[in-house]
Amino acid sequence: MKTSCPEALCSHSISTRLSRKLAIFTMVVLGVLFAVTWGMVKMILVERNEADLVARCELITDVVSRAAIGGETAVMAQLLSDAPMRASTRLQVWRADGSKLYADYESEALKRSEHTVVHEFSIPTPTLAGGEVRARYTVDYSRDAELGTRWAWILVGVTLAAGALVATGTRWHVTRGLRPLRDLAAQTRAISARDLDRRLALVDPAEELLPWIEQFNAMMDRLQLAVQQLEAFNADVAHELRTPLATLIGETEVALSRDRDAASLQDTLASNLEEMQRLSALVNDMLFLSQADRGAVARRGEPVSLAELARQVCEFHEATLEDAGVGLRIDGDAQLAVDVPLVKRALSNLVGNATRFAARGSTVVVAIAPEADGQFRVQVENAGETIAPDHLPRLFDRFFRADTSRCCEDAQHHGLGLAIVAAIARMHAGRTVAESAAGTTRVGFTLAAA
């Protein structure tokens, strides 16, 4: 079960963690290497001591065999004279009948030592009674053991010291290496809502940090653009709302300035109702765009004929088309599962725009065709004035009008029609299309299969 904790308590230091891990790794590696080395040295020393013990016993055998020619007195004299050369050792010799012939001085240190090796062997002595003597040679390896223990502690100390040095060095290097991150953090703290044009940069950029810097700067570009669009949108909304509100207030003030008959008041209320309906339509469109921006997805039903949907929309615009002196034709068809009300709304906005800007006597064409990427294009074509190339990318922006001098004389269109078309395309996982050249303009959108 996970327990929650404050961010400051749950965080950790990268330099501390890396230095600790590298120190432990260093100590483990050195510990293993030193342990193996110490074990091999110990084995070599044991082999050397065993060989030395055999060589000493052979030497004693040779000395006793030669001295035995002169009898027991000569043997004892020879062993006694050689005793000083047998430091940290003890030699004992017994006759064949078990009686003691010779024994070195028995030191207390030799008795108490835990690192002694005893080797018993027989020495042939033909000139002495019994023909041989038995010898016991005891060697004390306490010094070698003490030396090995001392070296073991030295190796342990070296291992710990190496771990401490690695930890200190790693922490210093990691802290120094993370300095660019602290610089980036300082630059990030300097960015505020009023200073969105700042971007991250390093004097000596690290290769590993470049993708993060590029992604952050790209995110700041998108954020700055979104803030600019939001500010422009707010300004446009205020502008669009100001006109109908001013009209409502002015007409109401005029109506209240003097006594009026019922017919005049009815005319004023009817005019106010039109303005309020315009305000309601504007607010509804804004709410729809807000839902689309929050990621709303189209509710697809059963596959329907896109040409049939276009025909229904055209019937709704039949009177407008007739007044504008414009004909209409539907080319192509496709069966696709779509959100029918949304697609009809997008088609209605496109047909309405094409009708307003189409040349009198021309024909508006609703074209439906599959795309190479598996989507289906629905576009409306009209003949009229060519849209400037720099205006085409902004056609689907909110409240954008390519030609404000001849648009919306009846004040019924507030510049959200194509923005709604773009939102409906996104809700169907599609995109918008717009092109204008040689007096022909094609504006539409694509729909992805469910």
From TrEMBL:
Enzyme superclass (EC): transferase
Chain's role: Member of a two-component regulatory system.
Residues of the HAMP domain: 175-228
Domain of life: Bacteria
Native species: Rubrivivax albus
Enzyme Commission designation: 2.7.13.3
Name of the protein this chain belongs to: Sensor protein
Principal subcellular localisation of the protein: membrane
Domain Histidine kinase: 236-450
